[in-house]
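Help needed: design a sequence for this.
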């Protein structure tokens, strides 16, 4: 039975016990409804307008921990844009906006700018959960992490089947990523969060098409959001909407363009942060060891992504399975051990910076706890792992070239890693097949 009294304002922090939750479980593949609270998501309903009616939302493209992203229509060109609405408690993206302006001004003189998504507009929108920074970006298709699932060669989905890109497409994604990094680094900017989910693929021109070709069908996709107590919630939308990226409009041909996106973690080389937000399995040694960071963290990520795109598997299998310091330390140790197993032994300087190295290795670099038959996963060398998992179109000569190239990128000393511009000159990237 619905109570007549209005609901009280939910606290900024979500209770850990279900007794403190407001909404019935929807089971929908959407953002968590409980995050609609002061400091959290802005409650968007399809058809909502923003910036004095300048932008009208017609489709949900995606969501993350700090934002939701929508397809919006506007008057002018381009007609369709991506509207990214940050949670209210997100840090003000002043640096992200400053960097976008800097890159925009540098763009006319550098072809590498074509591989960076463009920030078209930004504004603040007031809502029941606070003030939300809104970024208007050029519209792109799906990201490289999800598009692979849509490729015909990866269907039907089967248990144990590795989903991966064909070689020509993997190479193009890597080449365009490298061009984007070259543009960033040339302008003194580090991306800081290079990962497949932040590599977006271009689409055919949509501006001549009618909006009903893209508008999300509310009757088929909207998931009603109901409070457990039956009251009307003013901090959440009436419905949740599953994300519908624009997979079907991506051009998988010679005109395909890949662009780096998500510059919320970017920084200037002259002003590096004390902490990076790189995905755990893509962290460079200097991130794990809390040492100064710079463009080298992007290059390390790129080396890991080379392996991933050319095999369909991640290079390092690392995860944090708890929230306390010991769990984080265990993940760091596991990651450093995998470096040794897969790439090469750590130099003395890195071993000295690893405060818990003595728990695992003696003074001669020999492991104190040898692998046992019961150990669930034993890592092979980079050469062995690549040979076992590489794309079938990669033959022995090319395999050796790629392993040597990845090995040169995955240098423990960031000063010894090749720069993005130097990598572009490598024959594997500079010569077309």
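Sure. Designed sequence:
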């Amino acid at each position: 039975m619905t109570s007549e009294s209005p609901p009280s304002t939910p606290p900024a922090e979500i209770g850990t016990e279900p007794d403190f939750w407001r909404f019935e479980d929807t089971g929908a593949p959407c953002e968590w409804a409980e995050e609609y609270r002061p400091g959290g998501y802005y409650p968007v309903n399809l058809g909502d307008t923003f910036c004095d009616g300048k932008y009208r939302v017609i489709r949900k493209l995606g969501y993350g921990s700090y934002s939701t992203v929508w397809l919006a229509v506007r008057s002018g060109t381009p007609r369709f844009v991506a509207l990214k609405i940050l949670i209210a408690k997100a840090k003000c993206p002043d640096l992200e906006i400053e960097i976008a302006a800097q890159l925009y001004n540098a763009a006319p003189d550098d072809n590498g700018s074509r591989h960076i998504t463009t920030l078209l507009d930004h504004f603040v929108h007031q809502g029941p959960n606070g003030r939300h920074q809104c970024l208007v970006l050029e519209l792109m298709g799906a990201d490289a992490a999800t598009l692979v699932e849509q490729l015909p060669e990866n269907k039907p989905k089967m248990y144990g089947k590795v989903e991966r890109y064909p070689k020509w497409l993997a190479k193009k994604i890597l080449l365009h990523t490298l061009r984007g990094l070259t543009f960033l680094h040339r302008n003194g900017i580090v991306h800081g969060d290079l990962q497949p989910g932040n590599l977006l693929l271009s689409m055919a021109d949509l501006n001549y098409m009618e909006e009903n070709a893209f508008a999300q069908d509310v009757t088929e996709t909207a998931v009603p959001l109901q409070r457990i107590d039956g009251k009307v919630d003013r901090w959440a939308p009436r419905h949740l909407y599953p994300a519908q990226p624009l997979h079907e409009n991506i051009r998988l041909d010679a005109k395909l363009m890949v662009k780096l996106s998500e510059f919320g973690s970017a920084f200037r080389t002259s002003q590096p942060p004390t902490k990076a937000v790189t995905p755990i399995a893509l962290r460079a040694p200097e991130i794990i060891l809390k040492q100064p960071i710079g463009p080298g963290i992007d290059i390390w990520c790129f080396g890991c992504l080379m392996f991933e795109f050319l095999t369909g598997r991640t290079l390092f299998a690392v995860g944090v399975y708890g929230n306390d310091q010991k769990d984080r330390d265990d993940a760091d140790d596991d990651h450093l051990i995998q470096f040794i197993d897969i790439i090469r032994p750590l130099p003395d300087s890195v071993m000295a910076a690893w405060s818990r190295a003595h728990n695992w290795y003696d003074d001669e670099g020999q492991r104190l706890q040898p692998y046992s038959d019961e150990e669930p996963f034993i890592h092979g060398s980079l050469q062995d792992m690549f040979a076992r998992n590489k794309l079938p179109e990669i033959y022995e000569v090319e395999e050796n070239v790629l392993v040597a190239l990845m090995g040169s990128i995955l240098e423990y000393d960031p000063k010894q890693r090749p720069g993005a511009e130097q990598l572009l000159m490598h024959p594997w990237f500079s010569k077309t097949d």
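The longest strand covers residues 55-63.
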